[in-house]
Every structure is written in structure tokens, then in C-alpha cells.
Amino acid sequence: MDLNQSLVEANELFEAQAHIYRHVLNYTTSMSLGCALELGIPDIIHNHGKPITIQELVSKLNIPIEKTLHLQRLMRFLIHSNFFSLTKLHDQEDEGYILTTASKSWNPRMTCTVFDLLHVVADKIDTRNLKYVGGDMFSSIPSADVIFFKLKNVLHNWTDDNVLKILKRCRETIRLSGDKGKVIMIDIVLDEAQDRHEITETKMVFDVLMMVLVTGRERTKVEWEQLFLEAGFSQCKITPNFGMRSVMEVLP
What we know:
The protein is an alpha/beta fold and about 250 residues long. The protein is built from ten helices and nine strands.
């Protein structure tokens, strides 16, 4: 084996390691986005009316100056994830934060509800746009136009019967929203025909883990669609663009 081949194989190994870390720590993205939303950063940038510098953002957030670097690091990560962007200020060397298409979808007039078990949200404090509600998703789900299952593959933890119960509660909740209502999920979809071998194998590892640790399973597109149909939904769109996960939009 020559030196060049050894370097190529070593580089592939390091890239594979980075790929694994990215998936193992993928929850950090949702945590960081949740932090930005709780702080009201999209609203602040929107209301500022022009690109906002890090110093202005710190002032608007009313946080200690010594936290400036922490905020910069958070924003750097969210910029890389395409939730925000940086642009040059006119006639200045400074840069300012602006909204992207993704963060513009966070409407300042929109109210979000975090729904979880009562003990999980018991100590959370509501804000103008964000409310916390405790309860049981098998019994009822708070009224909403859109229900979003966050980046934790919620539904793959459960049996088909339990997933069907959850989806029916979702269908009941968005019924009053008419054509506007939808359910958005980010979860694993098995697709041996389209996925790379390594991706399929990782998804199957999760399937075995679900079988051993809980009562859930990973599902194919056909199996997901069957559950959506049985729960009373008429349309679904499945987009595989989150590595191992797919975005599933389900309409009444």
C-alpha cells in the first residue's frame, strides 16, 4: 500500500468519524434553535429593521457583556445551520445578523406551545410567543394549526397502535384549522432502494434498538403512509433531507 492510498483511507476514516459524531450530537441543533427562540432572537432581528450587530443584540437581550462570546458562538452555529446570516453593514467594517428564509418563518405574531409531560414543563416560564403545557399526548393535544414533533424521533418509540392513537389525537386537534392544519414530523424512514448501504445499516441498528429497549420500530414509507391514512389524514409529503431522518408533512 503506497503513501497516497494510506492517506486517502485515513481521510475517509476521519470523515466517517465526523459523520457519526454529527448524527450522535444532532440534538444540539434543536437545542440551539430552541434557545434562540426562547430568547426571542428572530423577533429582535425582525423588529430592528436592519442588520443587527452582536453588540446591539447583546443590548436588546439585556444579557451581561461577558456573555457576548457565548452568544457569538451560538449565532455562528445557527448561521452554519442556515437559520441566520451575516451581512456587511453599509459604510462600516462591522457585520450584522439578518434573518434567512428559515428564520423568517418564525412569525412574530405566531404563538408556539411546547407540549410535554407535566413534570418536564412544570418549572418553565411562558413568554409572549411561547407557552408550556403539560399533559398526555395519548389523551389530548392542545389546539394548534400546526403540530411539530421535534428532533427526537418521537414516534419511532411506539408500536403501530400507539402511533395511531397519537396521530388521531393530532387529527382531532388540527380539525378546526381546516386547510391550514398540518402535522410535521422528523423521523426515520427505511428506504433500502435509495439509501446508501451505511445509512440503511444505521437505520436498521435503530430498529433493533427500538425492538430491544422500547416497543417501537423503524418504518418504511409505505408503512408510514398506511398509519397516516388509518388516522384520518388524506395527504402526506415525505422529504429525506436530514441525514438519517426525513421530514414528513401530513395534511387532513
